[in-house]
Design brief:
By secondary structure, the chain is α/β, with parallel strands linked by helices. 31% of the residues lie in helices and 33% in strands. It is built from 9 helices and 14 strands. The chain has a 7-stranded mixed β-sheet, with helices on both faces. It has a 4-stranded antiparallel β-sheet with strand order 2-3-1-4, with helices on both faces. The protein has a 3-stranded mixed β-sheet with strand order 5-6-7, with helices on one face.
C-alpha cells in the first residue's frame, strides 16, 4: 500500500510538535519523524482528507501556533529507506543503547545493546517514551518471569525484558507488520522467550502476569486499564507511557480507582511514564 507523507512546519515548534504527534496518532497516523521545524507524519493513503483531519487538531483551535503543510505520496517500497535515513540510536543513560543494524555498534561498547530494524513500527517522535519505559526496566532489581508487552511495536521493550531476566513474554500488537517486526528483532537479539500475537486487548486472557508494559496513547490506555488490572497477579507491576506530563495525574487517578497504587512517575521533556502496583 502507498503511504502519504505530511510535512508540517510549526511556528513556534515547541511544544506543538509533540502535541500534534499525540493528536495525529489518535486520528490514525502510524509513524512520525521530528524535524528541526516541525514533524513529518505518515499514514496509509486510505486515511482520507488530511485537511479535514488537521481541522480537528490544536493547529486549527489555537491561535498561538502557525503552520504550513505539504503532502507527498511515497510508494511502499521506499518506506523502510525513509526510516533508515531518519532513525537515530536511542541512548538510555549510560546503560543501554537501541541501535539499527546499519549503526556502528562498536561506538557504544560497554553498554547493553539492542539491535532493531526500525521499519514502520518505530517512530523517532516517541523516543522519549521508549527511553522512559527502558529506564523503568533497567531500574528494576528483578524482572518478573512473566511479562506482557502491549502494543509491542518493534518488540524493543519485550527484548529488554528478556535481557533483564523475564522467561515468558507475550508481545501483542494490532498491526501484523509490527508483530512480524517483533519476531525478526527477537531473533536478531537472540531472544528465546518472546511469543507474539496479532490483535487487540481481547487477546489478554491470561491472569498471571507479573509485569505489564503498555507504551501506547492515552485513550487506548484508559480503555484497557481494567483489563491490565485483571491480567496482573497481586503486587504485579504496570508500566504506562505514551502520554504527556499533563496527563499523568489523570492516568494515576484512573489506576487508583481500579485498585492500583502509584509508585513513581518519570518525565522526559513533555512526556511521562508512571509505575503502578496492583494492591
Amino acid at each position: 500500500m502507498d503511504y502519504i507523507e505530511v510535512t508540517i512546519d510549526l511556528q513556534p515548534r515547541d511544544p506543538w510538535a509533540e502535541v500534534l504527534i499525540a493528536e495525529l496518532a489518535e486520528l490514525g497516523f502510524e509513524s512520525f519523524v521530528e524535524t528541526t521545524t516541525g514533524i513529518q507524519a505518515f499514514a496509509p493513503v486510505t486515511i482520507g482528507s488530511v485537511d479535514e483531519l488537521l481541522a480537528t487538531t490544536s493547529l486549527q483551535l489555537n491561535s498561538e501556533v502557525a503552520f504550513t503543510k505539504t503532502e507527498a505520496i511515497i510508494p511502499h517500497q521506499n518506506w523502510n529507506a525513509q526510516w533508515e535515513a531518519d532513525f537515530e540510536p536511542v541512548e538510555v543513560d549510560d546503560r543501554l543503547v537501541i541501535l539499527a543494524p546499519f549503526h556502528d555498534a562498536s561506538v557504544y561498547s560497554g553498554r547493553e545493546q539492542i539491535i532493531i530494524q526500525p521499519q514502520m513500527s518505530f517512530g523517532t517522535g516517541h523516543h522519549q517514551t521508549t527511553y522512559l519505559m527502558s529506564q523503568y526496566l533497567l531500574d528494576m532489581y528483578t524482572i518478573p518471569a512473566k511479562v506482557l508487552d502491549m502494543g509491542t511495536g518493534t518488540g524493543v521493550l519485550a527484548i529488554l525484558a528478556e535481557k533483564r531476566g523475564a522467561t515468558d513474554i507475550l508481545a501483542i500488537d494490532i498491526e501484523p507488520w509490527s508483530v512480524e517486526n517483533t519476531i525478526e528483532n527477537a531473533q536478531r537479539n537472540g531472544c528465546k522467550h518472546i511469543r507474539t500475537a496479532t490483535g487487540d486487548s481481547d487477546l489478554i486472557t491470561e491472569t498471571d502476569f507479573g509485569l505489564i508494559l503498555a507504551n501506547i496513547n492515552k485513550n487506548i490506555l484508559k480503555k484497557q486499564l481494567p483489563i491490565y488490572h485483571g491480567a496482573l497477579v497481586q503486587k504485579g507491576i504496570l508500566l504506562l507511557s505514551g502520554f504527556f506530563v499533563t496527563d499523568a495525574a489523570e492516568m494515576i487517578a484512573l489506576g487508583e480507582e481500579l485498585g492500583f497504587e502509584h509508585l513513581e512517575t518519570l518525565e522526559k521533556e513533555t512526556w511521562a511514564a508512571v509505575k503502578l502496583i496492583k494492591k
